[in-house]
């Protein structure tokens, strides 16, 4: 057995005890004697006496000594998290603020992943544009649950190769799959929530769902779960009911408004007002009894609370029980249920979809510049003036152009990544306008190559041109 595989197996065997003893028990560290990076237990390290100044500059490796005198270089984000949680048991995490909770959640997910250097390497997928859903459905049907712990690498046939995928190609594949799975072109899968056209719920069908539809629901759960594991935010928002179901939170009549506002009003009236002589219902929905013998049991003031509870459960889950089970079970096989238990449904949405608003000052504060650009360069000042003048939609398209998604990680722009676990801030790199007349993006590295135009007006014109093109693709130089 290789050292890497042995280390991974050891972590797997100790996860249960890790969660019982404390919130953070493992950190990534490089042993100076061998140069090998591995996961080590926190409790073998002597606590740092002084905070490291290096951690103020983002991800770094800081020196720690273990109890036997061995010297390690520990990842600063892991060390900071271990320090923050040194006195916090994992059962107490749910009571803490979201940013700290999100950091813990990401750390725990990363511990469960098989590193790309491990035996077998990454799982590789070749897809053709226009056939992404069909090809990935075939690929996914052949994967085992443990395969979703491995790194996924994608290539577009005739366009990119696997070594080009530093995260940007994967982001596009996930977003294309979600666009197709949640499209109205696939009837019987998802529909909009009853109170808006922004959030999706499972679409009720006449009769039992087909096996083909159930396979697509499983795939939807796998795609959303794997994107969450890989830190890819997706531009698809589920209804609050679906997030609650993923968390196994109890549902009540107040949730019915999200799927059927008219029925919600009727049920609320029943609870608040006398109904005898006004409502003539039985404990059934059509020919489907809500309880044994329900088709012959009349609803009265004495039993209406039970009726409302049972009908609410049927509307929220029973009506789409098989589809919901397929979707949630597939999601849970990728994302451990134990980790989800510390989140509420709003926090799960933030982790899956990113922050809804684009904070320009935060974007500016977490941007890198290629020489000779700097925050005070004329072209850079023009760039931020233009971005500030953009409406929300234009800002989202610019972000999508440069990073492959219109969403922002839950920690803001400082959380942008390329490969999993590696910080990759947004970057502006200068290019000669004689060589490149338009800005171009490297989505794998969250970078825009920006020509050094002579005027602000020309920069604004060409920025709007490229984001309005809705161009999706990857140059081979990535």
Largest sheet: 4 strands, antiparallel
Task: Using the alpha-carbon principal axes, give the shape.
Answer: globular
The main sheet orders its strands as 2-1-4-3
Number of helical elements: 16
Q: Spans of 5+ residues with little confidence (pLDDT < 50)? A: 1-22, 49-57, 470-478
CATH topology of the largest domain: Hect, E3 ligase catalytic domain fold
Q: How many strand elements? A: 15
Radius of gyration: 26 Å
What distance lies between the first and last C-alpha atoms, to the nearest angstrom?
35 Å
CATH architecture of the largest domain: Alpha-Beta Complex
- CATH class of the largest domain, anyone? Alpha Beta
Oligomer: single chain
Q: What percent of residues are in strands?
A: 5-15%
- CATH superfamily descriptor of the largest domain: Hect, E3 ligase catalytic domains
Residue-averaged pLDDT, rounded? 82
Helix residue percentage: 25-40%
| Tally of domains | 4
Structural class: alpha/beta
Which properties best describe this structure?
disordered N terminus, Hect, E3 ligase catalytic domain fold, 39% helix, alpha/beta, disordered C terminus, Hect, E3 ligase catalytic domain, 15 strands, single chain, 478 residues
